[in-house]
Amino acid sequence: MTSQQEWNDFAATYAQVQRESRLPIETDVTSYLQTLFPLAELTVADIAAGTGRYALPLSGVSPAVELIDWAPNMLKLADHWLKAHHRANYTLTVADWHTLPKRPRADLIFVSQLPTLTPDNLPTLQAFGRRALILNLQTQATSSLLAQMAHRLKMAIPVQPQYDPQRTRTITDYLTTNQIPFSTHEFHYTLTDQASVGELLPNFARPFSVNQANQLAGQITGTANANQMTTVNLDYRFRLLVIPHEH
């Protein structure tokens, strides 16, 4: 998705997916940041805040959180979410952050899983903060079944925009090359779920006949039925980059 309208249309689904997530990444990130910063004394600006997944725990410890997103529907759902949890210490800003004045907006600038993030964005994001820029990057979201399918098909495991490991390498390489100090912290989660070969095949972006799908399922699960559900292991990894403000 590349347009404001696409994100607006996706808002309700996005909120539902995040609410149903079994990953405690938002609370773990907040807890870790509390070991680095006196969050009770620092304001936070959540860039591309979406429907408020991270703003909820951050607003539980920070005196003020600004949610910035270019999709009004995202922030409307974030508003409902935060109010439902009795938060009042937040503001909503509908804007494309690229167009905002390059001046401090908060002590900490927080950006999570932004699929369009590039090294060229870092100076602007750093200009928004007084204390540090914090990037939460998802580097892995692997299904054991999807990996088996890729191996059988002799194809690469599909990578989705929200967890492109190359993005993390590009950003860390940029910081290292330009001698910009930063620290990292890893989060790793393993879950189990149910999935079928049939529902994962669209990830490979090529057509499969019913016979091909069933044959692949038989090779992997022993049952030539692409719709047969099977237990899969899910591995998720996130890397948190903390880039202190230069004084």
Question: Which key terms come to mind for this protein?
Answer:
globular; 7-stranded mixed β-sheet; 37% helix; alpha/beta; single chain; 247 residues; 9 helices
Care to describe what's here?
α3 links the parallel β1 and β2. This protein has 9 helices and 7 strands, in the order ααβαβαββαβααβααβ. The longest helix is centred in the first third of the chain and has 17 residues. Strands 3-2-1-4-5-7-6 form a 7-stranded mixed sheet, with helices on both faces. The mean pLDDT is 95. The chain is 37% helix and 26% strand. It starts with a helix and ends with a strand. With 247 residues, the protein is α/β, with parallel strands linked by helices.
Q: What overall geometry do the principal axes of the alpha carbons give? A: globular
Radius of gyration: 20 Å
Q: What string gives the helices and strands in order?
A: HHEHEHEEHEHHEHHE
SS summary, helix count: 9
Number of E strands: 7
Oligomer: single chain
Rounded average pLDDT: 95
Residues in helices, as a percent range: 25-40%
Beta-strand portion reads 25-35%
- Uncertain residue segments: none
Determine the structural class based on helices, strands and strand pairing: alpha/beta
- End-to-end separation in angstroms reads 37 Å
Describe the biggest sheet? 7 strands, mixed
Strand order of the largest sheet: 3-2-1-4-5-7-6
